[in-house]
Amino acid sequence: MSTAQRRVAAAAAALAVVAAGGCYIHEPRTPRVRQALFDELQPVMLKNCTLRRYGGPADGGYLMCENLVQGVQSAYSYGISTEDNWGCQLSREFQVGIHQYDCFTPHRPTCEGGRYVFHDECVGETAATIDGNPFDTISGQIAGNGDTGKRLIVKMDVEGAEWDALLATPDEVLAQIDQMPMELHGTDEARFLEVVRKLKRQFYLVNLHFNNFACSESAAPFPAIAYQVLWVNRRLAEVDPAAPVPAPLAAANAPDNPNGPDCQLSPPN
User: Using the 8-state DSSP alphabet, how is residue 196 labeled?
Assistant: First the structure.
């Protein structure tokens, strides 16, 4: 099983109601919550955004507005596994340091011509040690690195931990983040809807791409249970009022699994 397949399988297991040997207790999951979440996730087109792919050509690549990166002072890459091509490309092109966070991997990626600082720590809703693994909040990690008040880019792919971590992040910390490419996991919990509505107060959703390792007909109207998004801070973004909503799928998107069937809502524009 590939790294991407293991990650999607882990996310699906975390979202299961019943597991072998016991039950997970979750918030109520209803088709109404899922539909409301889907309705909130309608990407818009910006007049001042040139979308470009950063990182790998498949799984591990994320779209960002390349013309809005300039001026960023620090960047955070949550969820590393075996590589951080996203962070390497960003660091090389914009001479920005990348703070990498992952408490589960033994790998320490290198980047010739780039600057990495690896933190053997995960992100969560509070500072804690869980099963011997250290966790801290987004705001705690930013403050600990001396990045409070700086312009940031944050990439996140943490297999479902993103929801509670973002819910715990104060608005004033989110306001520092220029762009936030990330993968979201899950469709049915009320807190997912709460997080998306919270983010939309600070950001525009500019890209929505479904991970074809996680296609699922049972998740309709979502075609998959894992999906990449790009959030762009409202202080930078200029929405194109003449563009359709939802915006067409950008051509820079690509299947996470190049060898498998895709499951997008529409073909790339």
Answer: H
